[in-house]
């Protein structure tokens, strides 16, 4: 497990999430701490959200489409773009950018360290984002038709 990467991503996610919410929705900053839902999210998000996403976007994607993908950074960029595209249902540029960056990090970790590392990074980043209050951007109640 690349513990230094996990620590670095945790710190970067905490800073980015805090800064984004401070500017966009300061009233939501750390609101999840007061809701009482955080322990449930920390237990179930890694299993019910991060795990299935990582199974689809890393091993399934990289093994199924290996013959079509460029090598190295090109494959990672395509994977990150598709991961971000899958999150467009939230109709948020913040979500699109964050999932592209996260997708890049998770894909890179998968290729360098294997599936458990990608899953761990995804789970930790997601739990930190929910702790900060960024879940407001990823909550399915935010999915609305833009037209």
TrEMBL record:
Keywords: Hydrolase, Membrane, Metalloprotease, Protease, Transmembrane, Transmembrane helix
TM segment ranges: 6-25, 37-56, 76-107, 119-139
A Pfam family of this chain: Rce1-like
Domain CAAX prenyl protease 2/Lysostaphin resistance protein A-like: 38-124
GO molecular function: metallopeptidase activity
InterPro entries hit by this protein: Rce1/LyrA-like_dom
Top-level division of the source organism's lineage: Bacteria
Coiled coil (UniProt feature): none
Name of the protein in its database record: CPBP family intramembrane metalloprotease
Source species taxonomy: Bacteria, Pseudomonadati, Pseudomonadota, Alphaproteobacteria, Rhodobacterales
């Amino acid at each position: 497990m690349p513990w230094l990467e996990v620590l670095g991503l945790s710190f970067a996610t905490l800073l980015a999430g805090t800064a984004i919410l401070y500017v966009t929705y300061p009233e939501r900053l750390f609101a999840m701490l007061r809701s009482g839902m955080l322990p449930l999210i920390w237990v179930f998000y890694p299993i019910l959200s991060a795990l299935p996403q990582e199974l689809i976007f890393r091993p399934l994607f990289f093994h199924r489409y290996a013959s079509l993908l460029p090598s190295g950074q090109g494959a990672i960029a395509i994977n990150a773009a598709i991961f971000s595209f899958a999150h467009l249902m939230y109709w948020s540029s913040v979500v699109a950018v964050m999932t592209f960056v996260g997708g890049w990090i998770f894909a890179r970790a998968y290729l360098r360290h294997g599936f458990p590392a990608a899953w761990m990074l995804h789970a930790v980043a997601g739990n930190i984002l929910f702790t900060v209050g960024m879940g407001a951007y990823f909550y399915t109640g935010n999915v609305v038709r833009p037209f």
